[in-house]
Specification:
The chain is α/β, with parallel strands linked by helices. It contains four helices and five strands. Helices cover 26% and strands 14% of the residues. A five-stranded parallel β-sheet has the order 3-2-1-4-5, with helices on one face.
Amino acid sequence: DNKMVFTFVTAYFKIYESDKFDFYFEQFKKLVSTGFPIIVFLDDTIDSKLLKFYNVKVISISYKSLPINDYIDNNAELPKNRNIEKDTINFLKLMNSKTYFLRLAKNDINSNGNNSNINTLIWIDFGIMKLCKDIEHFKKKLKILSTDKNLTKKILIPGGKNQKALLTTTEIYW
């Protein structure tokens, strides 16, 4: 039984003065080429027709409507050790909204009665393919993952911090 057991969930919002949507859109098209289903939460200021692909569902949403905006002030103190240009309050709010997007995706799938082939949601960053040097190898690994019988009823969010590193409040952990 080789049915797909996961769908990717991702998001793109205009959170910087100099928006790089065109660059990230080109990277996203590489992810689309894998053929796996993708749900994209897209800034409602971007035309959703740009992401019209057979395996992509676009859900337009306002950045201001994200629940985290009710809890975190835009003037909140940011970690001292960070990339000043990238790790802004808006970026950190967006990164901390990933589980919210996963919940919205699950609710959307369930409300459409469309969950027979989708048991697992996998968060993947919209522009992740900028890090991928070998797309065919990436696709091959995804095919293996898609038939993994242990990959059901899970939420996966990748991370990358050395396991032996001490957790502090002055750094951003990715």
